[in-house]
Hints:
This protein is an alpha/beta fold. It contains 13 helices and 16 strands.
Amino acid sequence: MATSPLFLFLSLLFFQSLHLSSSQSFIGVNYGQVADNLPPPAATAKLLQSTSIQKLRLYGADPAIIKALANTGVGIVIGAANGEIPALASDPNAATQWINSNVLPFYPASKIILITVGNEVMISNDESLISQLLPAMQNMQNALNSASLGGKVKVSTVHAMSVLAQSDPPSSGLFIPSLQNTMKGILQFLKDHGSPFTINPYPFFAYQSDPRPETLAFCLFQPNAGRLDSGSGIKYMNMFDAQVDAVHSALNAMGFKDVEIVVAETGWPYRGDPNEIGPSVENAKAYNGNLIAHLRSMVGTPLMPGKSVDTYIFALYDEDLKPGPSSERAFGLFKPDLSAVYDVGISKSSQTPSTPKTPVTPAPKPTATGWCVPKAGVPDAQLQASLDYACGQGMDCSSIQPGGACFEPNTIASHAAFAMNLYYQTSGKNPWNCDFSQTAILTSQNPSYNGCIYPGGSI
Length: 459
């Protein structure tokens, strides 16, 4: 019996949605606990399993949460606090006891993958603490080795972006000179043990320091003119890539370009005080939604193409007891009742978030053109921006993920063409839905090929 093209297309979408929900190991979330209204650990574990989030970062080592995540497959990052560093550095037995208490009772049922020793220690201005950081990491590693967990559970420490003396343009990325000797020892440790360099880039703060409309678009992965790195000749289309590549440049300048980068924190608040620039539901949804779409595109960054860095979004829930401006208490993706604050497309039941459409004045629709494709000669940087924007608006871009029906050819032009057309088809099929800053055009020629089906046709 012949199989209909529609059945084949729907089957491909089904299998790609399965692939999408099971392959996003690079999407994680932070679980801060400075709050008095958090749901029970079991409820949090169930919530995570209903999403495409596959990793959770704790700032400590809460045994109830670690235990609740047993047999879920969720990778867990646990942390030793800054106050624990002196003991860990001076006494190997303290590190052994730490592993005995916080890892061995739970591993491997609870998938502990990384221990972070301290948080943003290098910018603490505490010279004693900074000098003790590497010995504490070494003792923690030795304790893991003694427990036969060396290589299975990694050890690192988390850094703020301010460990960089300069980051703009990205090619000029460089660590603060006074920290370089200590940093070199830490980087050698990371390299020797295959551990990641973990960093906290926040385009939100970059926008606050430069609150121009074009900066906001650059920070939110929205279509923009881009920013040229005069040192490398690369045009950057979003702040996240620029910040991560600045870290890569700093690692390269120290001779450690092969050390893996992990984004331990990044996010955007959905609410703030009246005098705060940038917090809003719209901006938070745009940043986190477009970030996730960018990671799913697997394009990587200009200096590290073809692989998405592991990225932990801040945060799973609001932390209502945190001090500071209101924005500090409004980074959560979910409310304590487990409902989403806003939808960024991470639910397994619906990988496509519902995005309110901006009302516009109706205009005549084209009569014989059925597909939206990029114009000839559009630079890859602009195509990437359009790809990120389209997939970030709730489109199901699973077909251009690895293994998807439209993944090959694995080029920005091909992936962008599919995403731009998908956006056009699902956004009303109006001429303005196929604009993309005047880089797209409507055509009557079907761009489908082999098993890759472009939705569309006569309208």
